[in-house]
Amino acid sequence: MPVAIYPGSFDPLTNGHVSLIQRGLQMFDRLIVAIAVNPKKVPLFSLEERRALIRDACPDERVEVDYFEGLLVEYAKSRKVNVLIRGLRAVSDFEYEFQLANMNRKLAPGIETVFMMTGEDYFYISSQLVREVASFGGDVTGMVPENVHAKLKEKFARKP
Questions:
Q1: Domain coordinates of the chain in residue numbers?
Q2: Strands (E), the chain
Q3: How far apart, in whole angstroms, are the C-alpha atoms of residue 130 and residue 102?
Q4: Domain spanning 3-155: CATH superfamily
Q5: Which residues are catalytic?
Q6: pTM of this structure
Q7: Per-residue confidence of the chain (160 residues) as pLDDT tens digits?
């Protein structure tokens, strides 16, 4: 039963992420959406909030939502998974992702990275841009799932 890991911070989950998850399920029987925990960063949404938002937006029983700290390849080994999915929005993403994939291959030669192009409707969307737009009260409708949109409004509710 082929399984892949789709890692990321998902802070917040965007429609681009959801698109890659849905497309990943066309290639793999199961997909582990693995939230990267970086103790050096302060996320907008807690780990539990991100897990709940992903589960709600991706209710397919073939999607497992998990988290990891440390090296992704060590997490993949612990889960006995040898395929990582990475999304590419633009050429600028490729250079970083190419370096990361090659470092991962050096650390764990049995683990492969599959690159998937983000859909044309979502190539301009990033979690960072969504957070920034939402923080200024901008409308991110269509950029994030409805449940995420509601949570963003709640997080950035303007105080009188």
A1: 3-155
A2: 3-8, 30-37, 63-69, 83-88, 112-117
A3: 29
A4: HUPs (3.40.50.620)
A5: 17, 41, 89, 127
A6: 0.94
A7: 699 999 999 999 999 999 999 999 999 999 999 999 988 889 999 999 999 999 999 999 999 999 999 999 999 999 999 999 999 988 778 999 999 999 999 999 999 999 999 888 888 899 999 999 999 999 999 999 999 999 999 999 865 4
